[in-house]
Write a structure and sequence with these properties.
Elements (H helix, E strand, L loop, with lengths): L2 H7 L18 H9 L9 E6 L4 H14 L4 E4 L11 E3 L2 E2 L2 H9 L2 H11 L5 H16 L3 E5 L16 E4 L7 H4 L3 H9 L7 E4 L5 H13 L3 E2 L3 E8 L2 E7 L4 E7 L4 H19 L7 H9 L8 E3 L14 E3 L5 H14 L5 E4 L6 H10 L2 E5 L10 H5 L10 E4 L2 H14 L4 E4 L2 H10 L9 E2 L14
Parallel strand pairs: 1-5, 1-6, 2-5, 4-18, 6-7, 7-8, 13-17, 14-15, 14-17, 15-16
Antiparallel strand pairs: 2-3, 9-10, 10-11, 12-13
Helix pairs in contact: 1-16, 2-5, 3-10, 3-11, 8-9, 12-13
Length: 464
């Protein structure tokens, strides 16, 4: 993967489809597409949908790692991708090469054209990639399908798959232009992922969001499973030591390969969700597999600690270098809270985003020693650093430096952090980390990579 792969991603046929809008948030197109494709999800023994604002990716990563340690074939659908759209559809932590992914997408064209003709509206990008995901999971003969919702719960394309289990992480303000600008509106939408016959698991905190979810579950006659307790004894740059009690079991001294107090909640949700899956009768997971999976979990861009040697060109050496896809205010608050718990001095930061992410940027600026804003010349759709500077209050102006390239920002910020023995955090959004990973592929974990996997053929798809 490299910058050229990233550029091809944004020139993909896939991107000719609309992203989303309030008008496009419906399930009729997705349901019809699944019918035309022969309902590919029906052959998967266990299907788990992960919904929420923050924590979906980490919760999914814990489940994938545990299930893989237990010997199961695990299909993972996540959003967004880093460098290539094919990363969204994985077998464990492996995915198709970009060119192969493009070829697989083209096989869906007749079915997408039929949906467009019937409804006089094009399927969305998320619907297109969801359909391919289910077909590939069937081709890969996965035992468990894990799919993260992309936007909300009521009309998210993943809600058309009839998941047996819905895992709900936290709920906070995000995608307000589509889901609404209040916790009540967002919680109401996300809670509708729970449907008749599903099992529902959550770590949603007490308060309005918790009340809305509980009412939804009660109305449907379902039960709500929750961890009994989850806390941490210690947090380090290498990971977190946790004590977690699920409804059925207590895990003492559980080593988590992801860093942060919030990761304890994500691991607790993952464990409780897998307990519910085991009750369906198709899974059996030992404590040894749980401990191995929690300790060896791979999740790029979530408090990922990297070394200067992983960069293509040697950089100065900060105390530590952390990559994290925090972008909204709550995510940034959690990230910086973890950083201050490990190193009390305000960090040096590099920030970039495809969207304004104003609140997240301001939160970072207030709690950092200095923030470098690189211009991403090869990706002009990223927010220009001069626009980000318009959000900066006069008292913070001297904390911001605009650079003309990402490499310039990396060198200047690393040198600044080295000189003052501070941590360096590279953050903003997962899209920005995608730019970083494209420019510096050595930062991605080795197990997270393109691979030769079974693919679809036109003959394997239903005739129209």
């Amino acid at each position: 993967m490299n910058v050229h792969t990233l550029q091809r991603r944004y020139q993909s046929w896939y991107r000719t489809f609309p992203k989303y809008s309030k008008a496009s948030l419906k399930l009729h197109r997705m349901k019809r597409l699944l019918e035309l494709l022969g309902r590919p999800e029906r052959g998967m023994p266990t299907r788990i949908q992960i919904v929420g604002t923050n924590g979906k990716g980490s919760t999914t990563a814990f489940m994938e790692s545990i299930l893989s340690a237990a010997g199961y074939r695990v299909g993972v659908f996540s959003s967004p991708a880093f460098v290539t759209e094919s990363e969204q559809i994985r077998l464990g932590t492996q995915f198709l090469e970009h060119e192969v992914f493009e070829e697989q997408l083209q096989l869906l064209k007749p079915y997408l054209d039929r949906v467009e003709a019937e409804f006089q509206e094009r399927p969305t990008r998320f619907e297109v990639v969801n359909a391919l995901m289910l077909l590939l999971f069937r081709e890969w003969k996965v035992d468990v399908a894990l799919f993260e919702a992309g936007l909300g719960g009521a009309f998210d394309a993943t809600s058309a798959h009839a998941a047996q289990i819905v895992a709900l992480t936290n709920i906070s303000l995000d995608h307000t232009h589509v889901l609404g600008d209040t916790i009540h509106a967002i919680a109401s939408d996300k809670s509708q992922a729970a449907r008749e016959g599903t099992r529902v698991v959550t770590t949603t905190a007490v308060g309005e969001a918790r009340g809305i979810l509980a009412e939804r579950v009660r109305t449907l006659g379902l039960t709500l499973a929750e961890p009994r307790a989850a806390f941490s004894d210690s947090v380090s740059y290498e990971g977190t030591l946790a004590q977690i009690s699920t409804p059925s079991k207590t895990y003492h001294d559980l080593e988590l390969g992801l860093t942060g107090l919030h990761q304890v909640q994500n691991a607790a949700l993952a464990l409780t969700t897998l307990e519910e899956a085991a009750r369906l009768g198709s899974l059996s997971i030992s404590e040894a597999a749980i401990r191995e999976g929690c300790a060896t979990v791979v999740h790029p861009g979530r408090f990922q600690v990297v070394t200067p040697e992983q960069f293509a060109e040697p950089l100065p050496q900060p105390a530590h270098t952390v990559l994290d896809g925090a972008h909204n205010a709550e995510g940034m608050h959690v990230l910086l809270g973890t950083m201050f718990a490990l190193h009390p001095a305000p960090p040096i930061a590099i920030f970039g985003t495809k969207n304004s992410s104003r609140d997240g940027f301001i939160e970072l600026l207030k709690r950092s020693e200095h923030v470098y804003l690189p211009r991403i010349a090869f990706a002009p759709f990223f927010t220009h650093p001069e626009r980000l500077k318009t959000f900066v209050l006069p008292i913070y102006k001297d904390r911001v430096t605009v650079t003309q390239t990402l490499q310039e920002a990396l060198f200047m910020a690393s040198r600044h952090a080295e000189d003052e023995a501070r941590d360096l955090v590279i953050t903003g959004s997962l899209y920005f980390l995608g730019v970083l990973f494209a420019a510096e592929p050595g930062l991605l974990p080795r197990s997270y990579r393109p691979e030769t996997l079974p693919t679809l053929s036109a003959a394997s798809l239903p005739s129209l």
